[in-house]
Amino acid sequence: MAQARRYAGGVDGNRSLERGIEILRAFRPGVDTLGNGEIAERTGLPRSTVSRLTRTLVNSGMLDEVRAMRAYRLAASVISIGHAMRTGSPVLNAIGAMMRAESAKRRLNVGLATADRTMMVYLESIRYSPRAALRNVVAGQQVPMELTSLGRAYLAGIAEAERERLLKLFKRRSAAATKALLADVRTSIRSVERNGYCAVSWQPGVLAVATPIVLGGLPVYALNMSLQNVDRSEALAGEIGAYLNAFAAKCKEVLAGQ
Amino acid sequence: MAQARRYAGGVDGNRSLERGIEILRAFRPGVDTLGNGEIAERTGLPRSTVSRLTRTLVNSGMLDEVRAMRAYRLAASVISIGHAMRTGSPVLNAIGAMMRAESAKRRLNVGLATADRTMMVYLESIRYSPRAALRNVVAGQQVPMELTSLGRAYLAGIAEAERERLLKLFKRRSAAATKALLADVRTSIRSVERNGYCAVSWQPGVLAVATPIVLGGLPVYALNMSLQNVDRSEALAGEIGAYLNAFAAKCKEVLAGQ
DNA sequence: CCAGCGTTTCCACTAAGTGGAATTAGGGGG
DNA sequence: CCCCCTAATTCCACTTAGTGGAAACGCTGG
């Protein structure tokens, strides 16, 4: 038997840890409280295993037990780890202040995101508002990769193989308008290649324009600028795109100098 | 042998998962990039084990590999989980908007925090600034429990046994000014019991006042109000304390109605 | 090209984890 | 008040998945 013996502590990673993380991932906006049964269903893990792993996660401070409901919630630890991530992000550190300044100067929203599986997650999202007292930052929010300018810019920035892998996943997910959607995505990608940016109106009345940021040794990021309460027009997209290209160039310059 | 056989899938939790979480925890503000060796040192785990677990964490999307430095960084996933936590927090959902309004009305900083081990972590921290354009929210930031009004209010709010456990930990940590510090902490706790709040100037020039929020079935939280560029005075502390008590009462009312 | 160091892989060993079945705990409803 | 019903937890025979010291590997700077 030529097949070499596969040892358990092997290359494919630690099963329990993987499963524990998957449990944490089962909580997301809109799913704030989960019992062991529901977790088992969502993750496909056996009930007894879930019971043991949730116990561990509670002991480690990642979950809070809601005894009254026989359920769990994400604990405060997860945001302190999240905070550490933002704090340690070299890209956000380098250009966060510039993003805020740019938002004020151009009077539009500026965001920075990267991928989490098939979603884009905002590292920072500065919402411009003339009444500046309103909330301005949403970090950690997810938006779908296929449907947003951010996601498509990201797709344009990553390696061929990874891109095709993701496109296949989108195909599998949305059985419906797949053909049109994928064509749309590819158009956006081509737009990035040609003009440096792509424009998408994912939500009605908001025009978003995004561009990838590719740096060796770091994940690919995407920068975007957006405006609410406007109609999508080529002219406007072009204008914002020009701002974005200029801003991204400045950012890359700063980032190149570590 | 009376000792019942202890089975491995036992009550004490899953070892690998615990260790994986400990690795994530090793990253914190100021420690943004860690190699396997450094992780092994900080966590006390054997190098080969760390190597396997970090691989798993990369596969699960919790860590990014920085190949150039043979090191890892927290990945974007952690902030999306953090975001889910904030989104799902019933307390933050119930009183977040009120906190913002209160900050504007009273012209001071308003914060909400809870414990992560021996640290307090902000779920929300609204920094009042007359020039409202400045950044306003810091979620996930940690401050030491023993030294802050937030932490001492928390200590006043939790059960006796847990409080004593924590106090013992503080004693072990800061070998130095322990006696005075612990007395100080107990004074603050008594202040909470008597007046509903305690006042501490942890950072020079900022006066912070905090009160616990205790709800059945949820972790204990602490609310605080603070002001920069002031001297600590009993009068001022009393004034802010009164505001805080009033505000906390309103919050508890809202929270009581789920 | 080699030396030195940190990382990854190997592998014998077995404790640690697994999951189906049995048990227990909770919490309405009769 | 007690009894069901549901869902979570514990039990435990089984064995695989994980462990960690040692060896191999692969950078990087001299």
What does this structure look like?
The first copy, chain A, has 258 residues and is of the alpha+beta class. Chain A folds into two domains: 15-75, Winged helix-like DNA-binding domain superfamily/Winged helix DNA-binding domain (Arc Repressor Mutant, subunit A), CATH 1.10.10.10; 80-256, 2-Layer Sandwich (Beta-Lactamase), CATH 3.30.450.40. Chain A has nine helices and eight strands. A six-stranded antiparallel beta sheet of chain A has the order 5-4-3-8-7-6. Chain A binds a DNA duplex (30 and 30 nucleotides) through residues 5, 7-11, 14-16, 35-37, 46-52, 55, 70.
Question: In a few lines, what is going on in this structure?
Answer:
Helices cover 49% and strands 17% of the residues of chain A. Chain A has 9 helices and 8 strands.
Determine the oligomeric state from the structure.
homodimer
Residues in β-strands, percent of chain A: 15-25%
Low-confidence stretches of chain A: 1-5
Count of DSSP E strands of chain A? 8
Second rung of CATH, namely the architecture of the largest domain in chain A: 2-Layer Sandwich
Name of the CATH class of the largest domain in chain A: Alpha Beta
Structural class of chain A: alpha+beta
With helices defined by DSSP (H or I, 4 residues minimum), what is the helix count of chain A? 9
Strand order of the largest sheet of chain A: 5-4-3-8-7-6
Instruction: Assign the CATH superfamily of the largest domain in chain A.
Output: GAF domain
CATH topology of the largest domain in chain A: Beta-Lactamase
The radius of gyration of chain A is 21 Å
